[in-house]
Amino acid sequence: MTIRSGTVYPFAALCGQERMKLALLLTAIDPMIGGVLIRGEKGTAKSTAARGLAALLPPLAEGKAAPFVDLPLGATEDRVIGSIDLEAALAEGRASFQPGLLARADQGILYIDELNLLDDHLVEAILDAAASGVNRVEREGRSLTHLARFTLIGTMNPEEGDLRPQLLDRFGLAVAVSGEGDPVTRVALMRACESFERDRDAFAGVWAEAQAALAGRIVHARNALPHIALSRPMQGFIAEICRRNHVAGHRADLAIARAARAHAAWDGRDTVTAEDVTEVAPFALLHRMRGATPDMSPPPPPPPPNQSPESDQPDEDGGEVGSTLSPPPLAEPTGDSARGGAEDKDEVQAIGAAFTPRPLGPTPRDSVLRTGSGRRARSLSASRQGRMVSSTPRRERDDIAFDATLRAAAPYQLSRRAEGPGLAIRIRPEDIREKRRERRVGSFLLFVVDGSGSMGAHRRMVETKAAILSLLLDAYQKRDQVAMVVFRGTGAETVLPPTGSVERAARLLADLPVGGRTPLSAGLVEAARLLDRVERRDPATRPLVLILTDGRANAGLGGGPPHEEALRLAAALGHRFAAARFIVIDTEPPGLIRLDLAGRLAAALAAPCLRTEDLRAEDLVHFAKEFQS
Fold first, then answer.
1. Checking DSSP bridges between strand 347-348 and strand 68-70, what pairing results, if any?
2. Which residue ranges does the record annotate as region Disordered (predicted)?
3. Can you name the residues that pair with 514 across neighbouring β-strands?
């Protein structure tokens, strides 16, 4: 679609949100920055700003306005990337290319609202085109390359789920927005919106001069951009900022360098200064620090010429800019709580050092059709989204497999042409084949954690928390749903209902106390209740349940000796949820005498059992990978 200046809210009239407007202008000046991701709550002018920016872009060579393409969430891969024109093939007997949305967005803006809800493989294809300026199409044995030079703008509400870190990193810039806190600004916003709705053309006329000034400034900055110098000290300054903020890889460095050049061009300078760098650096750092918010205070000044930019200079407060992914370690317990073993005392133990686990392997594809998104397991798609893996004569979604349809019709073309004049290719209903598509979906991980007093002995909860945190980080990357049940004292509780917010789970884990008796039976019953709710909501789900306990059940539900009662419930749990995979993590400390109660629990569940002294990242993830398949 093409945006006319009088039909959208003028960019120059936007009230507040100065950081968002600056990030958008920088990407308009240099589309090779890699796009901007706007993250924030609803009603913060994200869409309004994106549409308003399109009206500022210089017209195309033909005099047409720069295109603004709004990519719908339900768009298929063929619609986005391009495909063979089926109508031309059937009507004229020739194979021709039907451009997709990436081709339509060339030299304009590609806008994606609620980007986090779009399938990952589509996001990857769009980001590839945005970074290279070229779209490559492989369809039905034919290849095509066309220009796709567009400014990419994506918006999302983090409350509805996040993007994988790999995809976040591909965006050049990101900005977080929220509602304006200044009452004066909020009043001005209301009055401006009322004027716009009352007479859009008149409102646009009032702001026409300011709009023209912005558009001219963008053109001037674009023309000046190739001549902007970035000195070696400024390059060292950028490298030091990225190092201090612990970003992975070098995309942040490159994004800051490009954005700083664009900022200098926007301000009419021919050389990048420290002010340019400090102004744009937060845009490149925000989304590259998983689970943490980068320090938005001004970074340190660039090093003097006689000082190496790689030297480690502390901040004013003695720390470093930014933070790490892992939650900060809690203070070590002292006094009585440090001794452990007292079941009537609660204590909070720190999280041990998190490790990088090997990815939980993909579950082999089965015949169940699934919806949703994620990165854990391959599944046949129940919609028209995903990659084609085969074809079928079953007509379900009118998702035509062009090549398979032609192959089915090919043996009959001679006999059908003998019937009389007609189309070059004659297709009958029985020839039609539909695509069977494959997509990746997330999994559901349920942690059932023993929080009794015995877990406080020998710092067992420290290493148990480290193992849980490491799997949570892997679940974050795979976009899994996670939940947590904790049993301690006299009962069990779902402390974390099913959620995609792994950061929330990590915060809860940091504050998880230990103390009291071990009601293992109550934990198994609560896990069964939660699994039942998950199964009723999505019958196709395949949960992975990790039970972390030493098995010392000493508080039952009244069905006999607590441990024997727990074994009966475990056997019933494994039988009831046959589609689930169970793993028991034995937290009993090493020693000459071992009760192996957790091993008996695992046997009742028909599940593997690991001991904590053997619990390395490779061991735990290996078992999770093996028993999810």
1. unpaired
2. 290-395
3. 347
CB 241 within 8 A of CB 13: no
Which domains are assigned to the chain? 11-178 (3.40.50.300), 222-310 (1.10.8.80), 336-363+443-628 (3.40.50.410), 380-439 (no CATH)
Residues 6 or more apart whose CB falls under 8 angstroms from that of 232 comprise none
For residue 155 the two structure tokens come to 């918006």
Residue 384: CB atoms within 10 A of its CB come to 18
CA distance 65 to 55: 8
Give me the long-range contacts of 568-575 (CB less than 8 A, separation at least 24): 568/604, 569/521, 569/524, 569/525, 569/528, 570/524, 570/601, 570/604, 570/605, 571/604, 571/605, 573/524, 573/527, 573/528, 573/605, 574/604, 574/605, 574/606, 574/607
Q: With 0-12 CB in 10 A as exposed, 13-18 as middle and 19+ as buried, what is 482?
A: buried
pLDDT 10s digits, 20-34: 999 999 999 998 898
CA dihedral over 78, 84, 85, 89, signed as positive or negative: negative
Are the CB atoms for 571 and 577 separated by under 8 Å? no
Report CA torsion sign: 384, 112, 64, 225: negative
Within 13 Å, how many C-alpha atoms sit on residue 358's CB side? Answer: 13
Phi first, then psi, for residue 133 (nearest 5°) are 75, 10
Distances 155 to 71, 370, 541 between C-alpha atoms, Å: 12, 26, 29
Beta-sheet pairing, 544-549 with 434-441: unpaired
Give residue-wise pLDDT tens across range 552-581.
Answer: 888 888 878 888 999 999 999 999 998 888
Sign, CA torsion 404/405/408/414: negative
- pLDDT-derived band of residue 359, with 50, 70 and 90 as boundaries? very low
